[in-house]
User: Fold this.
Amino acid sequence: MGERLTVIGFDADDTLWQNESFFRMTEEKFAELLGEFVEGDHLMERLLEAERRNIGHYGFGIKGFMLSMIETAIEVTEKRVPSTVIGQILEMGQEMLGHPIELLPHVEDVLGALSDTHPLVLITKGDLLHQEQKLAASGLGDLFAGVEIVSEKHPATYMRAFGQHGTGPDRAMMIGNSMKSDVVPALEAGAWAAYVPHGLTWALEEAKAPTGHPRYREMPDLSGVMAFVAEIEG
Assistant:
């Protein structure tokens, strides 16, 4: 294709390091805590409803998840939830916030190679402080020319980020595990997009795959990114 990329964007959670698995483990503990009040599947439905309602208030991340769990516990127990349960929910959230970073396969090799030839920008949603802490703990910070921690990912997000760190979305690529946040809006902005599914996907991050889109590729892990870049640049 012969088109040189001027910037390559990466998502963080579940693209570079584990994240959703910790939420799933915490949800299992939450179900055990509230087991005497409500059946597990129904509890998860109520929790997802609370998360959906609260995104506009709390944004994405563990702190908003903690508050949604507390709200759900109050609702399903009709305000009878013991204070000890609220305390345990807070402890679970604090444990999540302190969990060590677990890099996903090929992350260090791919970022190391690409950072030698292209400006890389981290574009991630979530709590500002916690995302900064995770990036620092990952040891990957020096590989990125820019970091964008945003409340949501829209086409305008990518147009701005790729314009600031490169020459615009038409010569940029976004790489991530979320079809809804990393792939679809990046393509709508005019960028290339590589979908690297994680295996565990939060229900609110699901979207229909843009099958057949000329600027879209799906790959089993990050090791496929180098071939996609080479294909674009020809």
